[in-house]
């Protein structure tokens, strides 16, 4: 005898419904992800044919500074030929970018904005009917043209970078990279810039401010000191006698010029940038905690910026790191690398009571008639330290200016806090010179990060550049 079971004839239909509902949910989810996360990337892609269509109808808009200066514009001659011009030549080359030979900088990130016209729709329709192009929208940046020029001039003929930003918002006020190039002549000089005998040796196309990776030198003592403070509530009782150098298993760490600083507490060690003191501190630190602290400060992570940038790296681990490496890392040597922009962000977190803001360079988009199309607002990147910790580190940074390696800044009209650095990077070559700092000390409005390649100490080469920038901003 066979047993028969009753099958529900509606079940296959239900299964099909479930499959279609599931596919619909997945499709809606993907479109939502695309619109939120990837639409900007795709629409700005050089392979997007929509850009070619728009460029046939729209005259590319201008890029402006926060103080109203034109940084990039399209000039149309009587025959209708369009030429992209950069009135400041080399000064803004890396941050504003270029239009020809591959878009970079703001020309790349805001490409679709510059090729969109938000003037009256009837005006656009009329222009289309008579065969004329409509004016594209303008990008108004956070950059201060006067401050950018001062930073550019202050760096002189040296290789390096300068980043100036507002700690409370993350607005980038100036960004300089040298050596630079003139984007007006990019077609003529391209071969020279990209040849192994010419530009590649100077890396003129690289934005050193965001892509240059350097050993931080003594500027890294900001984080070493912070980790020590976290692990030692009695940090005010720290006591060390500096003899100018210290040895460990055949390795010798020197203070600058082997200067013996004598007996010093933590703040004095920081102000005098005492290498032997901080190398000794490094041996006592919990490496897991130190690693976590650095990752909280966005080491080994992509920075939250739209422009091309490289990750800073911190590799110290509990397993696999020797004591020698720990001591070197604690003074900003070893394998640690940082970009000038990232060093500015670290400084800004201290200045802004522990809150690290996302750096941004575009303030708003406006149409050709000056009407606001879109505005950009500040955003928080991380909160790596508490306000109390920020005050402790800030006090140490202030002592660098009053009693330490940056006393050249102590005669300004505002009180400055900062840290110098001299980063060894190759045998028989001078150190990279660093300075990071902010002002005014009690009410921070500006952060400065300066790197000068292969010149010597931060005190002698980076501090004078920072001084000119601070003077220009406040005086």
Report a brief summary of the structure.
This protein is of the alpha+beta class and 475 residues long.
Break the fold down into its secondary structure elements and pairings:
Elements: H1 11-43, H2 49-57, E1 58-59, E2 63-64, E3 70-76, E4 82-85, H3 93-96, H4 105-109, H5 111-114, H6 121-130, E5 134-135, E6 138-141, H7 145-155, E7 160-165, E8 172-178, H8 186-194, H9 199-202, H10 208-211, H11 221-231, E9 240-242, E10 245-248, E11 251-254, E12 262-264, H12 266-271, H13 275-284, H14 287-296, H15 323-330, H16 340-351, E13 356-357, E14 362-366, E15 372-375, E16 380-382, H17 387-403, E17 417-423, E18 432-439, E19 446-452, H18 458-474
Parallel strand pairs: 1-5, 2-6
Antiparallel strand pairs: 2-3, 3-4, 6-14, 7-8, 7-19, 9-12, 10-11, 13-16, 14-15, 17-18, 18-19
Helix pairs in contact: 7-18, 11-13, 11-17, 13-15
Q: What's the architecture of the domain at 211-362 and 378-474, going by CATH?
A: 3-Layer(aba) Sandwich
**In CATH, what is the class of the domain at 211-362 and 378-474?**
Alpha Beta
Major sheet attributes: 6 strands, mixed
- Write down how many β-strands occur, each being a DSSP E stretch of 2 or more residues: 19
Overall, the morphology is globular
Low-confidence stretches: none
* Radius of gyration, whole Å: 27 Å
């Amino acid at each position: 005898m066979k047993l028969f079971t009753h099958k529900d004839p509606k079940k296959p239909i239900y299964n099909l419904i479930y499959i279609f509902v599931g596919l619909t949910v997945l499709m809606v989810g993907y479109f939502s992800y695309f619109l939120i996360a990837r639409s900007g990337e795709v629409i700005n892609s050089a392979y997007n044919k929509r850009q070619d269509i728009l460029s046939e109808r729209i005259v590319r808009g201008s890029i402006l500074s926060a103080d109203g200066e034109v940084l990039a514009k399209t000039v149309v001659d009587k025959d209708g030929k369009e030429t992209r011009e950069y009135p400041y030549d080399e000064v803004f080359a890396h941050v504003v970018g270029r239009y020809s030979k591959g878009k970079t900088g703001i020309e790349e990130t805001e490409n679709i904005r510059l090729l969109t016209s938000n003037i009256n729709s009837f005006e656009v329709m009329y222009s289309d009917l008579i065969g004329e192009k409509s004016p594209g929208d303008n990008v108004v940046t956070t950059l201060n043209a006067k401050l950018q020029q001062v930073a550019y001039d202050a760096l002189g003929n040296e290789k390096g970078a300068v980043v100036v930003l507002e700690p409370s918002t993350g607005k980038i006020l100036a960004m300089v990279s040298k050596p630079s190039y003139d984007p007006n002549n990019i077609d003529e000089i391209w071969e020279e810039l990209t040849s192994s005998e010419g530009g590649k040796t100077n890396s003129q196309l690289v934005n050193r401010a965001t892509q240059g990776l350097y050993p931080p030198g003594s500027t890294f003592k900001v984080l070493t000191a912070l980790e020590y403070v976290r692990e030692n509530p009695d940090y005010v009782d720290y006591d060390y006698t500096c003899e100018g150098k210290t040895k460990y298993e055949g390795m010798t760490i020197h203070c600058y010029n082997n200067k013996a600083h004598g007996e010093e507490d933590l703040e004095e060690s920081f102000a005098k940038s005492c290498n032997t003191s901080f190398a000794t501190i490094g041996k006592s630190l919990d490496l897991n905690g130190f690693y976590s602290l650095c990752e909280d400060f966005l080491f080994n992570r992509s920075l939250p910026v739209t422009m091309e940038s490289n990750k800073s790296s911190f590799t110290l681990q509990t397993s696999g790191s020797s004591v020698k490496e720990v001591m070197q890392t604690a003074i900003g040597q070893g394998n640690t690398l940082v970009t000038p922009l990232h060093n500015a962000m670290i400084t800004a977190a201290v200045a802004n009571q522990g809150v690290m803001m996302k750096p941004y360079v575009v303030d708003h988009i406006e149409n050709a008639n000056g009407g606001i199309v879109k505005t950009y607002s500040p955003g928080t990147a991380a909160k790596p330290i508490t306000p109390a910790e920020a005050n402790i580190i800030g006090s140490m940074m202030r002592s660098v200016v009053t009693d330490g390696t940056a006393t050249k800044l102590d005669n300004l009209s505002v009180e400055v806090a900062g840290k110098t650095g001299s980063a060894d990077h190759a045998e028989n070559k001078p150190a990279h010179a660093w300075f990071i700092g902010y002002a005014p000390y009690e009410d921070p409005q500006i952060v400065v990060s300066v790197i000068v390649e292969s010149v010597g100490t931060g005190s002698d080469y980076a501090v004078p550049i920072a001084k000119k920038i601070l003077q220009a901003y406040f005086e």
